[in-house]
Design a protein that fits this description.
alpha+beta; 4-stranded antiparallel beta sheet; 13% helix
Amino acid sequence: MEDREQEYAKLLEACRPPAKPPAAEPGAAGEQVTEKAIQLDYKKATIWAYALSPDGRRALTAGQDSTVRLWDLETGRCLRVLEGHTGYVMSVAWNADQRRAISGD
């Protein structure tokens, strides 16, 4: 039982975000701050979650209409509607290579 509790404590520690983010090189993508508002042409349903691509050019949204949408942030246009969920899509995330995503309802 004690081993199990120790392993659980290790798992919790591994899942916590770092106390202090690692220092970034000046001008690195992690340091970029934008003051530009993002306006998406989407008035059909509530967006429950979103994920910005690491390069800041695309976004995924998870919606009340059971879809995931891929957006071009420079134009604000929807590039693709991904269907298949049967309920509200409540979460979405990019894969590290930006070629795939995961979503959950």
